């Protein structure tokens, strides 16, 4: 009898076996060297194998392996000081640490609801979400995500969260003019609030620019100014999900910085420790923390939240990002990669749009670029592109939600060089050319 696959829990195709990784490259057991143009899942920022970070983790492990999350250790203190001194916006003074983005987003949702309860409005429990989004894999965050593909088989247990439309300039129903598009999406927000009743709504959770679920979609000009004004008028908190866009990925410290966003709660992970440890943070205002305290509530920790060695890894990664000016490098290399993709592929018959900010870049692939008709889902075009890319020595990240599909994402480590950029463009060009003669069945 054939033995079952040992990994993962539900096997699909033969898993990629990575023997080791160094810098921006993966080395497979079959001898191949693969440029990780995805940064794993848009995680790696300083690259693999930095001994300085490993030494910091080792020292933390020796010093204190596990300490109750609410207690203070030198490693936790160092990370809090690093964040406050060099990273967080001045209005975000409170820090809660979790093990990953799903935990952190769920914690932020709880905090928003507790905030209103602490102010005497316990009925304000509704969390607004957006139509194209991904906030995590817990029952709550999966339900709150606009990501049908990752809800399959769970529909019977997931609550329904009211969704506003995610700004999607390429496919905006009123056209691509910024002013018209912005007004269209703001009207949608206002109408949704009116339907639900502002007094029932706790918060809106959203990304500053869309992550991999839509593929680096940036909102039209004026969108976030208008959203913040509407939320403030109605006393609705803003939870900014920067799990993917935080800590330099977009060429600034946070994606929010591109749009003048001042959230009540900001969630960030992935780049916080660059893949060296599982850690994410919820960063909030004094007002949110004080309302929760006034209500006599607590913010419950997860067992492995703020693990000392994870804090040590994060502090080391953040210091390296600052010391080596890697955020500016992410901006420069991102502009270079995007420009190279546009020059090579903007007129490709299968490319609808090349978009992105910093080193969060995506290419939207379609069957017909004039009508923006997607390929039928049964063709698994994204899988085909990733397979062709791997054959050329580059790994791309699959984006989309199932309904929004064939989004090829790039989020490499900030240390990539000219040769890496050329390899990335060549590999994607090869993969797209393989689709030119692909026929699209009726959709």
TrEMBL record:
GO molecular function: pyridoxal phosphate binding; transaminase activity
UniProt keyword Transferase present: yes
A Pfam entry, by short name: Aminotran_3
InterPro entries attached to this UniProt entry: Aminotrans_3, Aminotrans_3_PPA_site, PyrdxlP-dep_Trfase, PyrdxlP-dep_Trfase_major, PyrdxlP-dep_Trfase_small
Transferase found in the keyword field: yes
Cofactor: pyridoxal 5'-phosphate
Similarity comment text for this entry: Belongs to the class-III pyridoxal-phosphate-dependent aminotransferase family.
Protein name: Aspartate aminotransferase family protein
Provenance organism: SAR86 cluster bacterium
Taxonomic lineage: Bacteria, Pseudomonadati, Pseudomonadota, Gammaproteobacteria, SAR86 cluster
């Amino acid at each position: 009898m054939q033995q079952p696959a040992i990994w993962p829990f539900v096997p699909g195709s033969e898993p990629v076996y990575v023997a080791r990784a160094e810098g921006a490259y993966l080395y497979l057991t079959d001898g191949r060297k693969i440029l990780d143009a995805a940064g794993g899942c848009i995680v790696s920022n300083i690259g693999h194998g930095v001994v300085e970070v490993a030494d910091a983790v080792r020292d933390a492990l020796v010093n204190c392996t596990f300490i109750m999350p609410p207690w203070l250790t030198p490693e936790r203190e160092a990370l809090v000081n690093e964040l406050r001194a060099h990273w967080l916006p001045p209005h975000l003074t409170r820090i809660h640490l979790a093990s990953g983005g799903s935990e952190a987003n769920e914690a932020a949702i709880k905090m928003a609801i507790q905030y209103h309860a602490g102010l005497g409005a316990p009925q304000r429990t509704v969390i607004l979400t957006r139509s194209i989004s991904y906030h995590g894999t817990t029952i709550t965050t999966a339900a709150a995500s606009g990501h049908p593909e990752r809800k399959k088989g769970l529909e019977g247990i997931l609550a329904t969260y009211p969704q506003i439309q995610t700004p999607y300039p390429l496919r905006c129903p009123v056209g691509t003019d910024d002013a018209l598009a912005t007004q269209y999406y703001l009207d949608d927000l206002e109408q949704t609030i009116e339907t639900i009743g502002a007094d029932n709504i706790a918060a809106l959770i959203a990304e500053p620019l869309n992550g991999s679920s839509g593929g680096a979609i940036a909102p039209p000009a004026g969108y976030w100014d208008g959203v913040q004004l509407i939320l403030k008028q109605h006393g609705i908190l803003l939870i900014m999900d920067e799990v993917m866009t935080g800590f330099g990925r977009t060429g600034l410290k946070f994606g929010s910085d591109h749009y003048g966003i001042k959230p009540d709660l900001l969630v960030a992970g992935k780049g916080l420790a660059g893949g060296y440890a599982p850690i994410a943070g919820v960063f909030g205002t004094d007002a949110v923390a004080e309302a929760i305290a006034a209500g006599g509530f607590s913010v419950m920790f997860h067992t492995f939240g703020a693990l000392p060695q994870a804090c040590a890894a994060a502090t080391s990664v953040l210091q390296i990002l600052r010391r080596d000016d890697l955020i500016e490098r992410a901006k420069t290399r991102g502009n270079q990669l995007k420009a190279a993709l546009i020059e090579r592929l903007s007129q490709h018959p299968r490319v609808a749009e090349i978009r992105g900010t910093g080193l969060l870049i995506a290419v939207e692939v379609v069957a017909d670029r004039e009508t923006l008709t997607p390929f039928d889902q049964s063709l698994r075009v994204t899988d085909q592109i990733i397979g062709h890319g791997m054959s050329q020595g580059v790994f791309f990240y699959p984006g989309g939600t199932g309904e929004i599909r064939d989004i090829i994402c790039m989020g490499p480590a900030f240390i990539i060089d000219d040769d890496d950029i050329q390899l990335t463009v060549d590999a994607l060009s090869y993969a797209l050319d393989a689709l030119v003669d692909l026929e699209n069945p009726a959709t």
